[in-house]
């Protein structure tokens, strides 16, 4: 398996601000890779450098073996990109936007009709001006333009913003099909569930620096879970004394606590109790980073 994306020593400064600081990563061909961190960590700046929208202050980037600095047109022909702040022309129709963006990609738009059907954009919708679109409809246009020319590499920045749960599930299905066909995914997000569901490896960005790279499962296994337990009978003293349980607050039959680590011992303990209700919610990724890495250096460019 070759390398689809290679970033070496990427540095980007905006005046006195250091947005990306010596970032290096490698994404294998056919891999789904997550690029995650709190807002302002440098995720979007990295992507803009990867796709030639801004010039790096230092470093080298190659996509599918092509140097972005010298072979940008060749790179972009085989890349589908969805920006995090996806803007469209309000006076244009949906069809006109897809035509214009497709012309920039310089490849046949072989999947356009199929994608419109799957994301429920009708021909009547596509004939309407963008100014009449909802936030979710605009995001559908963004997804379609990224996929419609069947690129080998997808670079997606906060791709499910504005989508309802049904459309999010369909988007996840599109990513799975892309992977099955041998395609590569580079997905930037601050939504842990999205990263967990769609990627297998992840780089963690903190204040412009990559502080960790590893399997997605290893990262998400460290998150804090907020748990609420309602019992039918009072809890005996020490009933929740387990590794991983912290911040326990009890009020009669209601118990709230935080849990980190392997859930199996906790579930075994709960199985011996008269449980009326149990809810366990994972933190969003940004909260997890504040918990694991402390202050993430907000205020830098994103």
Short note summarizing the structure:
This protein is of the alpha/beta class and 302 residues long.
CATH class of the largest domain: Alpha Beta
> Helix proportion of residues, in percent?
25-40%
Given helix and strand content, the structural type is alpha/beta
Instruction: Tally the structural domains.
Output: 2
Tell me the total number of β-strands: 14
Mean pLDDT: 89
pLDDT below 50 for ≥5 consecutive residues: which ranges? 296-301
Largest sheet, if any?
6 strands, mixed
Series of H and E elements: EEEHEEHEHHHHEHEHEEHEEEHEH
Gyration radius (Cα, Å) is: 22 Å
Beta-strand residue percentage? 25-35%
Taking strands numbered 1, 2, ... along the chain, how are they ordered across the largest sheet?
A: 6-7-8-3-9-10
CATH superfamily of the largest domain, please? P-loop containing nucleotide triphosphate hydrolases
First-to-last CA distance: 32 Å
Number of helices: 11
Shape: globular
CATH topology (fold) name of the largest domain: Rossmann fold
CATH architecture of the largest domain: 3-Layer(aba) Sandwich
Describe this structure in words.
By secondary structure, this protein is α/β, with parallel strands linked by helices. It folds into two domains: 3-216, 3-Layer(aba) Sandwich (Rossmann fold), CATH 3.40.50.300; 224-282, Alpha-Beta Plaits (2-Layer Sandwich), CATH 3.30.70. Helix content is 31%, strand content 31%. It has eleven helices and 14 strands. The strands form three sheets. The protein has a six-stranded mixed sheet, with helices on both faces. Strands 2-1-4-5 form a four-stranded antiparallel sheet. Helix 3 packs parallel to helix 6. It is globular. The model is unreliable at 296-301 (pLDDT under 50).
